[in-house]
Amino acid sequence: MEDFRDFTDRDEGSSFEGRSRDAADEGAWEFSTITDVAEEFGFTLRALRFYEEKGLVSPRRTGYRRLYSPRDRRRLEIIAQGKRIGLALEEIREILRASGDGSSAARRHLEIALEKAKARVEEIHAEQRELEENLQEALLLIADFKGRLGASG
C-alpha cells in the first residue's frame, strides 16, 4: 500500500509528486489532477469522468480529488489518438485491452486493434479522395460561373 502522506502540493494544487515508502527505490511518481489532464489532452472534465465511469481510466481519489497516474495518462493519450482518427469508444477499449500484459489474448486484441486502425486509415483516404473530387467539381463550377458572368457582362 502506498503512503500518500509524503506527497507535496505543487503549483497551487495542480500536480502531486512523491514517493511511496514501500517503493522508495523505484523513484518518484507523478500524479496529475483532472484539470491538468483535461488541459493536456483537450478533454472536458465531463469526458474524463465518463472515461472513468466506463472503466477506461482509474484515477486515484484523495477526498474529492482525482489523481491521474502515468498509466492513466498513457491510456488517455491512446483515447485521444483514437478519437482523432475517428475510432469508436469500443474500438478504443479494445486497443487499451491490447496494451496489456503481453499474453496471447492481449496480442490478439492488439492484432484486432491494428486491423481496425488500418481500416480507419483506408476510410479516411476514401473520404479524402471524395473531398478532393468535390473540391475539383466546385472549382469547375466556379470557373463556369465566372465565365458566364464575363461573357454576359
* Spatial order of strands in the largest sheet: 1-2-3-5-4
Q: How confident overall, as mean pLDDT?
A: 78
Query: Low-confidence runs (pLDDT<50, min 5 residues)?
Result: 1-28
Number of helices: 5
Secondary structure topology:
Blueprint: E1 8-10, E2 15-18, E3 29-33, H1 34-41, H2 45-53, E4 60-62, E5 65-68, H3 70-84, H4 89-98, H5 104-152
Antiparallel strand pairs: 1-2, 2-3, 3-5, 4-5
Helix pairs in contact: 3-4, 4-5
Describe this structure in words.
With 153 residues, this protein is an alpha+beta fold. The protein has two domains: 1-71, no CATH class; 85-153. Helix content is 59%, strand content 12%. The protein is built from five helices and five strands. It has a five-stranded antiparallel beta sheet with strand order 1-2-3-5-4. A hairpin with a 2-residue loop joins strand 4 and strand 5 (65-68). Helix 3 crosses helix 4 (89-98) and helix 4 runs antiparallel to helix 5 (104-152). It is elongated. It starts with 7 loop residues before the first strand and ends with a helix. The model is unreliable at 1-28 (pLDDT under 50).
